Amino acid sequence: MTRVVHKFTRRVPxxxxxxxxxxxxxxxPAQLDALKxxxxxxxxxxxVLTLAHDVESLAVRSPLFNAIMYDEGGMSRAERELGxxxxxxxxxxxxCAAVHADRHAQLExxxxxxxxxxxxxxxxDLNQRDAAIFAFARKLSEAPPKATAEDMRALRDAxxxxxxxxxxILSASLFGWxxxxxHVLGDPVRQEESQ
Amino acid sequence: MSLxxxxxxxxxxxxxxxxxxxxxxxxxxxxxMTEAAEKAVLCPKDTGSLPHDLRASIAARIAxxxxxxxxxxRYLEKANAxxxxxxxxxxxxxxxxxxxxxxxxxxxxxxxxxxxxxxxLQAAGVxxxxxxxxxxxxxxxxxxxxVVAGLRLLHGQxx
Lengths: 195, 159
Description:
The complex is a heterodimer of chains A (195) and B (159). By secondary structure, chain A is mainly alpha-helical. Chain A has helices at residues 29-35, 46-51, 55-70, 77-90, 94-108, 112-120, 128-141, 149-157, 162-185; strands at residues 2-4, 14-17, 186-191.
């Protein structure tokens, strides 16, 4: 028995698709290529198998995702995770929020920031830099986007360089994309413990 | 195509000689991949049952609804606008009403999407592959319009 998770958590749930994923043994050569399936790597998540229905998008999205979140220089990894988390909270993507809150906590070696965000949301008491980053990413993620010149000024006042701000724009926006796949195409679930 | 002719920096009116251009060049790979992703959702080889004109019209609708008429116009440059879809004040007409209803919710009220939104598409005969294609399109446009909005703000501060 599984139940859908509705509350923000750092404990990453299982993702259960709402559509039928591509079956690996029925995948086309193009799908196998985009899935990066090799004889020694046959493990593919239900999420990626679901996205394999649109193989042209999947093939370009994975390297783009990695570049935005992990390329050298610019904003720190932890702060990019904060941008991802802000978007995921606006869109209530429980799965993405869990993954990226957990990564932030690991990178910072502290759960303090994500504890406060999950508990108090936009009102969380954060240091000036984190507060400016979270507020900008949160407002950019709203529909329509509501970030303003004032929010941009707050980033500069908090000491962010142009290269860091560009990475923040990219990471928050990227999760406007990821959330609309993860949250729309599936449910975050947990196995109920048997009594 | 030069970096600054691509849709994302181009729509944000980033001039190649501006201070912001130098910043964008540090992430040229990301803007090139973004352009490739745009092609994959707007004009893929395998369209499923979502032809290029419909895709461009859906993208234009999302951009217009977000207040970005420049980006909306850019999506329609190479496609015929299906006015009932591209105009956010219209409901898609008989042919596209259900898809348009789903697009509006997924783009603008993402947090409110529930499993029945997907089940309703399936019940109407939309294939799982087309549902994924539709979500990739909506999701990509949501990303691109926010990068453009962010670049415009960054531009305002560095000009």
